Amino acid sequence: MQELTHYINGQHVKGTSGRFADVFNPATGEVQAKCPLASVEEMDAAVAAAQAAQPAWAATNPQRRARVMMEFVRLLNRDMDKLAEALSREHGKTFPDAKGDIQRGLEVVEYCIGAPQMLKGEFTDGAGPGIDIYSMRQPLGVTAGITPFNFPAMIPMWMFAPALACGNAFILKPSERDPSVPLMLAELMEEAGLPKGILQVVNGDKVAVDAILDHEVIQSIGFVGSTPIAQYIYGRGCSNGKRVQCFGGAKNHMIIMPDADMDQAADALVGAGYGAAGERCMAISVAVPVGDETADRLIEKLVPRIEKLKVGPYTAGNDVDYGPVVTAEAKARILGLVETGIAQGAKLVVDGRDFKLQGYEDGFFVGPHLFDHVTPDMDIYTQEIFGPVLSTVRAGSYEEALKLAMDHEYGNGTAIFTRDGDAARDFAARINIGMVGINVPIPVPLAYHTFGGWKKSGFGDLNQHGPDSFKFYTRTKTVTARWPSGIKEGGEFNFKPMD
């Protein structure tokens, strides 16, 4: 049995708390490793090392810090397959999906190579008589991130890349369900030239999280996970005077207008709804066709596509559509919500409850499910299922479809499929959701824009990556300077009598 470590001050360090979490192979259900769960003392040691190392890193000019990011990109490309295999083994993602996880993180690192430009301040010449005013963007100090299981490469890089580029040290507390890739990323960062102690990986559970929230040295916290935990971290972190950004749950709607290309819409829904077994905060989990005729046409297109989905382990080849969910508990919760949907009156059009994979009977595989005639009062509509379950809510009009998305408590992502530019512009302008796709099912912005939801999907004023990340990981200092006049004429050569 492999025993994983923390990564503190440039070394793999065994856990000393005596507490461990099981790391499963989701495809087989077997425990493949033990992950140490840090004590408060272990977290304190990591923070102390980061605090000692950070001033020298902050004093390194931004261009040299950017060169470390540039080399890190090269190393990520070099080790892409190795990282993806480790990710798939612990998470269950298909191999191509795991590489995509790494690639979307890598793109943020590429953006951070532009740190010298992003960290430039402002200058006003002659703001007053002999007065100049200028601003500087300076690092916060020691920062931290708490990241989820579903993107064990991408989201850590979304956080630590801009934090490090700005001159901060960073404490990463990854998910204890799939911790190997974050440890590998820390090794690669140091191989790229990052000084020891600047990026620490401390594995743990609530004990480690609370230690981060309460540690007076840690200046900022990033979090991605469920909304209840996001609210907890945001409230406790802010009350301790920290800068906090938290991203929570989602229930992403896709509106399908009568004029939409129905084949395109169906393909988009299958990929967005069932990719990564639905374990994405940007997954489309609610299809909203406008009109019964549109709904009937959509269901007719969806059913054969869903029934052809290939579910299996990442080792079965690149034509696998999705793999297992992350734990047995996650599988049980998903199937429990499916049963609730049936009991509350939804029509189960594609039934994946009896899905079994020969040779992997103990794995955490969940077959694809499609519901029709779902109503807003049902649990499968109000709750984030985080599994391969797509719900269809029929809307009588565009305004009714718009209201469904706007009234839901989550506001992460949404999409509309239509050929009507007027409808698309109206939708984008009015919808109260942070990320909008027009004929794009999963509208995750590219690295040079920002990522963030509204309502109960996001807490904090600044989003992830893009320009917001450089604002989040720096403080602005403004200097007003006036220099005494009268010395620019040079020296006095004549004896000056005393006044």
From TrEMBL:
PANTHER family in the cross-refs:
MALONATE-SEMIALDEHYDE DEHYDROGENASE
EC no.?
1.2.1.27
Record's protein name:
methylmalonate-semialdehyde dehydrogenase (CoA acylating)
Residues in domain Aldehyde dehydrogenase? 13-479
Give the Gene Ontology MF terms in alphabetical order.
methylmalonate-semialdehyde dehydrogenase (acylating, NAD) activity
What is the phylogenetic placement of the source species in the record? Bacteria, Pseudomonadati, Pseudomonadota, Alphaproteobacteria, Rhodobacterales
Name the Gene Ontology biological process terms. L-valine catabolic process; thymine catabolic process
Alphabetically list the UniProt keywords.
NAD, Oxidoreductase
The cross-references to Pfam families, in alphabetical order and at most eight, read: Aldedh (PF00171)
